[in-house]
Design goal:
alpha/beta; Trna Endonuclease, Chain: A, domain 1; 2 domains; 16 helices; 7 strands; DUF1016 domain-containing protein; PD-DEXK-like_domain; nucleic acid binding; YhcG_C
Length: 320
Amino acid sequence: MPEKKIERGHGAGVVKRLSADLKLKFPDIGVSPRNLWHMKRFYERYCHVDPKLQRCVAVLPWRRNLLLIEKVTDDKEALYYAEKAIQLGWTRDILLNYIKADAFNNEKHLPKSHNFSEALPEVLAEQADEMLKSSYNLGFLGLIQSVKEKELEQRLIEKIKHFVLELGRGFTFIGNQYRLEYNGKEYFVDILLYHRNLRSLVALELKIGSFKPEYVGKMNFYLGLLDKLEKQPDENPSIGIILCADKDHLDVEIALQDINKPIGIAEYQLLLPTEELKNLVLKEIKDSNEEQLMINKQFGNWTSQFVTSNSQLINTGNYE
């Protein structure tokens, strides 16, 4: 494919012809002119990056790759989102939600708050630390106004698949408002889960406001009941997670200092203000228009090496 044709503005015609030729040879996969331009962008974006990033984007579904190319320019950030999308099975919409929430920078800067190293054996404490995030993104609930704790819990249960994916690998949902009866009294855990790798019950309590020290005492009590009433002899101690709108790391440290049950406290991102949602929509429209102008005006250097380098992608047909 002569480069000078593209440089003279004939790129669109060349790509249409290439698309027609490829459709004859590969009739069952997506080789439209638009997809070929996207392949060019994919090649240019990742041809010189770290091999680890190349391996990740090679197995990431196509539409998620296009989203990364559009939204993320930093290689480390792209690797973070690509790895998370693969590990946790994020859909394109969930990936977009994380990118908009700036999960990469938020997770990097927020410290984790827990007492796992004091309350669990060393190996189990390390696994529990990996299990807990400093912040959880609940934007998939689609909330634009505040809700009460019971409504938040109900929304999470309605979208339990998304919630379990957000929590991370290994979680299994057991129930919500899980009833514990002891000494003639009833107690209810907001959400009860089981972590297969840790082999531990995980009690999760939802709090709409900021962290309060008394939440730790209540969770410590629930974990004691779970270990006494529900934990199997071959299972590890139950673990608690308290989800709050925000937390002060120093307050959490003091609240946990004399607690003997493993408890982690994390923040969640829940809703976007209406004005911010409007701005996001306008930005999406602006970005889309700029992308179309770039495709129409800038054809770049496209040689036969591009087709050769992307033959594997074309043959796999991974266009999800």
